[in-house]
Amino acid sequence: MEAGQYGRDMQDYKCYRMDGKEQLLCLAVTLLLSGMVSWLFYQSPWGMVSAAAFSIPVKRTLRDMLMRKRKGEMLFQFKEMLQMASTAIKAGYSMENAFVQAREEFMKLYGSHAIMAKEFGNINRQVALNVPLEKLLEDLAERSGIEEIASFTQVFGFAKRGGGDFMKIFNNTVDKIRQKAEAEREIETVMAAKRMEMNIMNMMPFGILFYVGVTSPEFLEPLYGNWLGAGIMTACLAAYGCAYFIAGKIVNIQV
Prior knowledge:
The protein is mostly helical. The chain has helices spanning 20-42, 50-90, 95-110, 115-128, 133-144, 147-162, 166-215, 227-251.
């Protein structure tokens, strides 16, 4: 099945397209880093050519961060939608009407601009046109790239085709998704503090160079204006880049 088969105007969430503000933020961070490197490591305007080298990792890091944030929000919203649908089913609604009711309740809490409000608005419109609900959920799982949504749609489709105690299967699946979503949010809360500590430590080399350069510039003079000093500073910058990459991998925990 092609992503968006049942909703061609809906987004493919497996990739992230930055908007204008995010592009400007990326440019600002790139220029800031290039300026810091050119002054602190080389004390030469030629160091600004590093802007081209910084632009790729800065853009990739920012995009990955925004994509990870959106994925967490989507999983949380999907979990909330399923819990509201489960409540509606217990109140006597059919499965299809339960998602209509769930979306109305969801929008009261999170607004109509929330991702899942838009997605289930499209799903409910397609269901009204007699498109099978399980196919629409499979399409959402394909476009989202989120494992929990894909797992739910597989269980949902099997339960509808295979019969049995459908409500029990549905509620058990919703409960497991809720537990995992809550675990991920708890881990993300803890790791946010660790990422802050990592970012502070990442700025320490720049802070040390700035302090020494301002208070005792004679200590750094042999490293500027000659090829040997530039080579040493470049090696230090490369080592710093490797340390930054490794630290990022450490704090990027997958549940």
